[in-house]
Amino acid sequence: MATPTKALIELTTAYAVLVDTEDLSEYQTALDGLTAEIGKHAEGIALAIRSLEAGSEAISREIDRLELLREWRDRRAKELRTALLTALQRAGMRRVEGQLVRVLVGLNPPAVRVLDGVTLPPEYERVIPARIEPDKRALLEAYRAGKALPPGVEIVQSAHLKVQ
């Protein structure tokens, strides 16, 4: 029957006690035995470390691979969404009822597009530290209130696609 092995901490403690002893009678034999056991434990722990590090590297590579796959799938889904929206708009279809999904073409809220280089009246501008930019919220409110918009400003309304 094999004797149970001691934990590395017990072995290193016994080694330290043995090194400090002044009794030299069986010192070298005991020291060799402890050194061999510590060596076996050290090798086992080193193999575990190597295995863990190799696994960690493999996980990192897999994470990178999955990240690329996720980016590709997101990009492809966006492309398909855009193509489907364009096709449904060209066909004049706002709703498709399938057995598994329902597709709806909806309108996004109105948005303000201001052409580059257009100078707006101060009530349609807001001050951002170190720059002035169009106040699109004020322009949209003016549009909704029926006010005339300055030249170079147009109200646009895009569409979006819902897959339910």
Mean pLDDT: 84
Task: Please compute the radius of gyration using only Cα atoms.
Answer: 37 Å
| Biggest β-sheet description | 3 strands, antiparallel
User: How are the strands of the biggest sheet laid out side by side?
Assistant: 1-2-7
How many distinct folded domains? Answer: 2
Note the beta-strand portion. Answer: 15-25%
Distance between the termini: 67 Å
Tally of extended strands?
7
Q: List low-confidence stretches.
A: none
- Tally of alpha and pi helices: 3
The structure class reads alpha+beta
Shape: elongated
Helix content: 40-55%
Write the element-wise H/E pattern from the N-terminal end onward: HHEEEEEHEE
How would you describe what is shown here?
With 164 residues, the chain is an alpha+beta fold. It has two domains: 81 residues; 69 residues, no CATH class. Helix content is 53%, strand content 18%. The chain has a three-stranded antiparallel beta sheet with strand order 1-2-7, covered by helices on one side. A two-stranded antiparallel sheet has the order 3-6. Helix 1 packs antiparallel against helix 2. It is elongated. The two termini are 67 Å apart. 4% of the residues are buried. The model has no long low-confidence stretch (mean pLDDT 84).
